[in-house]
Amino acid sequence: MFKLALLQLRVDGGAMESNLRRAETGIATAAAAGAQVVLLPETLNLGWTHRSALREADAIPDGDACVRLRAAAQRHGVYVCAGLVERAGASLYNAAVLIDPTGVVRLHHRKLNELDLAHDLYAQGDRLAVVATPLATFGVMICADAFARGQIVSRTLALMGADVILSPCAWAMPADHDQTREPYGALWRENYGPVARDFRLWIAGCSNVGPINDGPWQGRNCIGCSLVVGPDGAPALTGPYGPDAETMLLIDIPPVPRPARGTAWENFISPESAQSSIQR
């Protein structure tokens, strides 16, 4: 068993220094609370689709943003999973890393299922991997990767052996969204739940909060509602809603028995889930 912290942080577009300071403080707080794994939001250094990335995005693993997160992971002896805008040559990527307690980047993911409206800024992702650790075998995806056709990203991570899928996210709604009339979160429950249940694993998505002040969704708010779904396919933890709902969430993740290697997963996937995937 290990303790997972989800840092539902405020992310201000273009404000790299304050965003990173907030992340460093959150990592320290999570470690002090006993967390062994800390999950942070998508593009936390500069904000989703904020055009400051054209000037300020830097490299993984040796750019300033990633180096500071690596130092925080090492300083506090925890795993850190975070979303970062990455510069690689002439290209920008919506990326995420999983850093181990020694400060080494163990996974480096680039978002595969980016929304069409972000393609002008972010290049197409080009990788998918899992890593075995003493705590669990982890996979990493980013936000909309979860609802790629047929849930192909999360299902592929599961087939690769992931016990836990970590997903930095930036979940946004129009500023006039009425949470009472239209509660947020069905999209993620509908896409996390079947995969978690079929493959008997955990999926955790951590969203930021705060207004979006640039890009195609300028004027919307990121609203939190971070979510953890367990191997039964049901939500095990849900974060609060709202542009000001900055918080830390903690949950214990127990080990989950997995089928032996070489066992066909089709023997464990329900007919309803299989049919749903075919129809997507």
Explain what the structure shows.
- With 280 residues, the protein is an alpha/beta fold.
- The protein has a single domain (2-279), classed as Carbon-nitrogen hydrolase (Nitrilase/N-carbamoyl-D-aminoacid amidohydrolase, 4-Layer Sandwich).
- It has helices at 16-32, 53-56, 64-76, 152-159, 186-199, 271-279; strands at residues 2-8, 37-39, 79-88, 91-99, 105-110, 130-132, 137-140, 164-169, 172-173, 202-207, 209-211, 221-223, 227-229, 235-238, 247-253.
- Strands 5-4-3-2-1-15 form a 6-stranded mixed sheet. A 6-stranded mixed sheet has the order 6-7-8-10-13-14, covered by helices on one side.
- Helix 1 runs parallel beside helix 3.
- The protein starts with a strand and ends with a helix.
- Mean pLDDT is 94; it is low at 274-280.
Q: Can you give keywords for this protein?
A:
280 residues; alpha/beta; Nitrilase/N-carbamoyl-D-aminoacid amidohydrolase; six-stranded mixed beta sheet; 6 helices; globular; disordered C terminus
Provide a brief overview of the structure.
This protein is α/β, with parallel strands linked by helices. The protein is built from six helices and 15 strands.
Topology:
Blueprint: E1 2-8, H1 16-32, E2 37-39, H2 53-56, H3 64-76, E3 79-88, E4 91-99, E5 105-110, E6 130-132, E7 137-140, H4 152-159, E8 164-169, E9 172-173, H5 186-199, E10 202-207, E11 209-211, E12 221-223, E13 227-229, E14 235-238, E15 247-253, H6 271-279
Parallel strand pairs: 1-2, 2-3, 7-8, 8-10
Antiparallel strand pairs: 1-15, 3-4, 4-5, 6-7, 9-12, 10-13, 11-12, 13-14
Helix pairs in contact: 1-3
